[in-house]
Each structure stands twice: as C-alpha cells, then as structure tokens.
Queue: 3 jobs
Job 1
Amino acid sequence: MRTPVTAMVITRVNAEGNATADDILVTEEPLEIRLGHGPLDDRQEFRMSVTMRTPGHDTELALGFLYTEGIIEACDQVLRVAHCQQVKPEEYGNVVRAELHPDIPVDPARWQRHFYTTSSCGVCGKSSLEAVEVRCPGPIKPWGRIDTALSIQLPERMRAAQTVFAHTGGIHAAALFDRKGSLVLLREDVGRHNAVDKVIGAAIGMSLDPTEHQLLVSGRAGFELVQKCVVAGIPLMAAVGAPSSIAVDLARRTGLTLIGFLRGDRFNIYAPADKS
C-alpha cells in the first residue's frame, strides 16, 4: 500500500554544527489513469493521463479528473474505478483503470493530448489553450451574499483538518464547506490540482449538490483550479493565495464568485466584479 508520507534520515544544520535526524516527507509518485471502454464483451483500453500525486484517494482523483476534463458528465457513467493488479512491480498501486459505461463514446484521437501534469503546474503537456478550457458551462447558480465573518474562519478550519500537512508542511489542500461553514470534505496532495480533483471526485460520488457548497484551496487560484470549480458547478471558490488574470476572467465570464488572499481577517473579491 502506497502511503502519503515517507520517512527519511536527513542532516540538520545550524550554527552549532550538523546532526542526523529522522524526518517525514510528503510522498510524490506518478499515477497513471487508464480508461476501459467499448462493449462489455470487447473492452478496449486507453491510457489517459499520468499525474504526479500524493498516494491516497486515487479512485476519487481519477473520477474527479475524468469529470473536470469533460470525459464524463455524471458518476453513473463510470462502472467502477480500481487499481490495476496486472502491472509491473514498480507500478503496483500507481495505476488505476476507470471502466466507462458501454454507451459512453471515447475518441482516443480527441483525447490524445499526452496529459502529463506535474505538482507545480496542472496544465503542462496540453497541446493548446483550446484543450485547457475543456468544458466550462455558464452561468452557474450565483452564490449570493458573502458572509465575511464566516469566510475568514474557513482557512483555520481547513488547516486544523490537514493531517499530512501537520507532519510534513509540504502539501496542498482543497476543502469543501457547506453554506454554514461546516467542513464536508478535505483532501491533501502535493499537486493543488490533484487535491481539487480528489474533492470533486468524492463529491460527485456522494451525489452532493454543488450549488450549496464552496471550495477553499490552500494555495493560489490558477486558471485550471477555477476551471475545475466551474465545471463542477460550485458557485464560490476561495484561495489563500492570489488568482491569475485569466482565472478572474473565467470566473467573471461564468458567474463564479472568486475570493483571493483569504488570510487573517481580510480577503479580496475578484468576481463577480460588482460585488462587495
């Protein structure tokens, strides 16, 4: 079983000298996502993507990825997602296969974008901007009035639930809260985009109503994260860090409420542009 943390012996250095010490690092390993598709008596396999991720909640990551990339539109279009058993020893635990419903068409030429996502940039490897903005319906249902007192409490609630971060200090988080600020789902990953896919995958698996929830991410609000939030139909996204210009453009175009620099007792509202 792959684990989200890895123990290592390191050298600590300070003004008094050097000393060996035990440390715990966040695990980063590749996950290959494969698709099984076609008639049940003549299944075909398509190798969809490789992403560098932190092991754990791999099936949710695959499900969320397929959903936010527009390959599926509902959870019931996937028969099952499971780790592949017939793989090389070094691949064991790092390959999952999603079995699509036989009625779901798959065009390998369309999806042959050689997805390779790194922990620092979820867009790397995509052949064009048209391939990046996969499926952003809009406008989404407006969130409505922002509760300032509630919003500024969410980062601390998320941090308190980050078990891997508490041990390593080197991992991103995505958290789904309801309108009352109760934590519904939290996932951690070395890749911020993977953390969001894990949350979305879990949410659609639980049949949660996305319009009644808000998403908080521990880092910045890049384009791909905003895109995933919009595709999932989540009406409010908040980030501890800064948004990018193209992320704000997408939020304003689709009706997403986008908050950035949610720290301490303050934050900025970037979309909708006329809200305060």
Job 2
Amino acid sequence: MNDFLDSRLFSTGGLYRHWFGPFLSNDEGMDAENMTQAALMALAQLSMRRNWPGVSFFLDGLGKDLQRRDLRLEQVLFGCRFSNPIGLAAGFDKNGVAAGVWDRFGFGFAELGTITFHEQPGNPRPRLFRLAAEQAALNRMGFNNKGAEGVRRTLKRQALPLPGQRPAVLGLNFGKSRVTPLELSADDYASSLELLAPYADYAVINVSSPNTPGLRDLQNPSQLRRLVERLRRLPGCPPLLVKIAPDLEDEVIDRLAMLAYEEGLAGVIAVNTSLDRFGLEDRILMNTGRTLSEEPGGLSGSPLRQRALEVMRRLYAAAGSTLPLIGVGGIDSPEVAWERITAGASLLQLYTGWIFQGPDLVPRILEGILNQLDRHGFRNISEAVGSGVPWE
C-alpha cells in the first residue's frame, strides 16, 4: 500500500498536484498568466535541449509516465497519422516554444498559436483569470504572439523533424492581426500561412476568438468561403481546418458544416471560448471585484461543456463521417472525452481541464477510451466516433 501511495505521489501527476494544486485551488494567488509563462520558459529550454543526454533522459522518463501507445488509438485523418486522439489546444503554446516536447506529455498532437502576421502584445493585463470552483477560466488575451516571422524563427531553431515525420502532429492556428482591416483579412491570413506552411502538418483558420474586434464576422459563410479560397491557392498549403465559436445559431452551424464539406476543408474544430456566462453572470472575479457579466473575454472549461457537446452533435448530424471533427471545450475526464467522441469527434483537445487536472489527465483519458472500446466491442477508436454509445 505504501509503495502504491509513493508511486502516485512521485508520478508526474502527483508532483504537479503537490506543487501547483494549492495555487490552482483558489482564484487568488499567483497570476494565471505568470504561471503559464513560467511553465513555458521551462518547456522552451527542454525543447531546445531535448537531445542533450541529461535532458533526453528526463524526457524519456516523462514519456514513460504519460504516454499510452496502442494501435487501437491510432487514426489517419487529412493525411496526418495521429498516434492517439488527444491534443493540446491552441492558446497555451502561442509561439511554439515547446513544439519539440509535447509528445512526451502523452499528446498525439499539439496546436500552436494563435499566430498573427504582425507581432502584437495583446490586450492590457490582467487578461487571464482562474475560476477555481468552477474549473473554468476567463481570458481576453487578444492574440498576443511574436508574429509569423518570430514563430518561424522559433520553430527553425528547434530543428524539428519535417511534417509527417514527427512523434506528435503539429498544427498551426492562425488569426487576423488587430491592425489589419477586416476587408484585408484574407491577405493577412495568407501572409502568415505562406511563411509558416513548411512547418505545419495542418493549419487552422481561427475566426472565432471573441477578443479581436470584428473577427467573428468572418464566420459568416460567404466571408469564410472567400477566405478559404484565398488560402487554398497558396503553394504547399497544408490541410485546412476552421475553428468555430460556441455562440453561433444552430442554422449557421449547419451552413458552416455544409461549407466545410463543399470547400473540401480538412475538418472543423468545435469550439472556441464563449461570450455566454452559462448562469455565472453574478460570479465575482476576485482579481477585479467585478462580475463575469461586467468582464469582457471568453469563458472556457467546465461551464462550456454542454454547449460544446451540443455543437458537436449538430455538426456530426449535418456532416456525418465525411468531415473530421475535433472536439474542445470542458473536456476534463475520461467520461466527458468518451461522450464527445461518441457524439462525433475523431480528435479531442485539452487546455483548461489539463491545467486544473494536471498532466496525467492525458493518460487517464486514453486508458478510459481503451476500456470503453473493450466494453463495447469496438476494434478501434474510429468505430466509436459518432456511435452514440454511453459510458459504461
């Protein structure tokens, strides 16, 4: 018994909860953005030095603890081979500083960004807030990043394997620069993608962040169609996906699914953060003393879960198995992950739940998926996608 407790305590997840759990258990304390930046600085050093003997030994140990390899979890989607369906969502590694090590955390893929053509500082701080009791976060970051050229230099310095030869698939998420007028959006996205296409296994058109003025107007199907057609003309354009908001009307979701199918998009990512407060309008942010209804920004985490599930079901009903779907929003347990897969998601992404639950959330979800495949007699995860079977 003591050996079991010791192994749990000194596992990656146990150490994470021991050191970071106290900070994550309340809204106050260390600033959420400062914690993120401190973690990314350490991860950046690991990625740059991942082939050094001592560092590689540490990363190998991390991989043994967090990776779960099983052929039943593998899928080939839009030309990319995913070792498992769990990915890191965009927004954490905005500049790709840790691109070389995300597989060691058990992820089958990682999405870097959001990247804009022009470097930009984002919105004034504070702009990232914990809602510990609700396992949620509010952010109004505003696409703070080093710009496409800065990200290109960062990825080049890490000497990453070529697309298709990496242990984890890498997607790049692109947004509109704040200084670019809406009518010039297509050229802005195209400039970023043209610069970074050689580094991307796939690319995401982010038209759904609530923190860049006017950006969500690009979700209008006619606007989005023009944007997609502009990007697809680029030489060496990687598979294109679009990321949509949870706040869209159901009819618009149906139209976007049809557009994605007609334009031959590689897939749809559902969903981004929400402007809805899901009954938490009167919840006070300790950092500002104001209620959530008074604070701008997008809500993520557990409160978003039900709406994200509804959007996934809507997309799958409209597109079926013809259009790969990536589910994100409120995924923080094996049960929630299974529900999203059986609703139609071929792949899943984690962010807020991963921060609160810790790095062992990835292997726990993968073990849960394998358990459910066995229970329901599925030979692989592809057979479970959209099946509607419940968690047992």
Job 3
Amino acid sequence: MKMKNLEKFEKYVKGELQEGELWEFKTSLETNAELANEFKLYLEVEQSIKNNQKNRVFDTLEMIHQQNKTNKSQKTIQLRSSRFIAAAASIIILLAAGIGLIWMQSHQSTSALFNQYFEPETAAFNVRSSSSSIEQPVLQGMQYYELHDYDAALEMFDKAPNNLMGKLYGGLSLMELGDFDKASVKFLAIIQHNDNLFIDQAQWYLGLCYLRTSKQKQAVEMFTSIADQNGVFKTKAQKILRELDQE
C-alpha cells in the first residue's frame, strides 16, 4: 500500500501517537478531505487483510478434511492421519493466533473510534450555560479539571456527591484517568435522574465508555438511542453507528 501517511495511520490505530501528534492528526482528519479519504481507504484495506487471513485458515482446514476422506487404503489413512493430526495442530495454533489478531485489531479499531470521537467539553462552557446554582466544591473541581489536574478535581466533586454537574465532570475526569468503568457509573446516575440538563452529554460519554472498553453491544444500544432522539449528539451517533456497521 503506497500511502504517504501510512506510518501515522498505523501509529494512530495502535494508540502510539503522542498527545500533540494526536491532536494534530484528529484536527487534520476534520479539515483535510484528502487525508480523511486516505485514512478510510487504509481502514478498508486492513479489514480486507483480516478477512482474507481468516478465510485462508478455514480453506486449509477444509482441504485437509477432503484429502483425508479420499484416502481409502488403511496404511495411507494411518500415514495421513498422523500428518492430519500434525497439520490440524498447526492450523489450530494458527487459528488461535488469527483469532487473537482479529480481537486485537477489533480492539484497536474501537480504540481508534474512541480517540476520534472523544472530545470533552470545556468546564467554562457549562459554567456559563448552566442555569442552576453551582456549589463551591464543584466550581473548584471544574477549575482543577481545566488545569488537567483530574485527581484534585475528583476530590472536589466528591464533596458535592448529589450535584449533577459534578457527576458529569467527575465522569469526564475518570475518563481522562482511564477508569472507564467508574466513569460509566457517574454517567448512568445522571441518566437515571432523568430530569436534568446533562442527559445528552451523559448518554454520549457513556456510549464512548462502552466503546473504549469493547462493550460493543451496549455501545450500539446507547448510540442507537441517541440517534433516535433529536439531541445535540444525534449526527455524531449516526456517524459512529455507520462506522460500526450498525445503522
């Protein structure tokens, strides 16, 4: 594959781009149509390679099975049986390795999607847009969040455990720290509250948490629910479902 950005694509899919490189790459995908098309082609080729590897394994198994059936001489059968066992053992090893490769590529693919769509909103936006009074610990927590001090932010949000804005930014802080399961709990609490300003955001980020932890069924269900609504994340949810071949 002759692609001038091949090395960068591979690093992105494997999660090896540094923070500055990652931001630059994601921005380029949004603004550079040629780069976006090249990246789409790269993903399609990788998927094709993965499918071909799997098909070759099963074709080899079928060929061995058919060869064994046509051997009617007991001596030949015995000889071929030993070869079949050895070949089958090798194929099983290859198949296991192939399944592992497929899982890794699938995991890398969902991770790449997560990196593409995870763009947390700034705390300043919600401070200005919220009509509810902001408790002092939550305000301080969001200031820490803006400074990327997520541990300190979580300490402040925990001082106002019933504040929904604190739960939202607590969840975002946990996502930044890589604890997606705990983040999911925060977002679920917001959704279950049902009467608040942050349900759209909680649903979106919960879907991304499911995506990042390879819980694809739950992710698809959440993004489908978002796509069926008329919220701010409707279009993004439709796009991500297309990426997952679920729309």
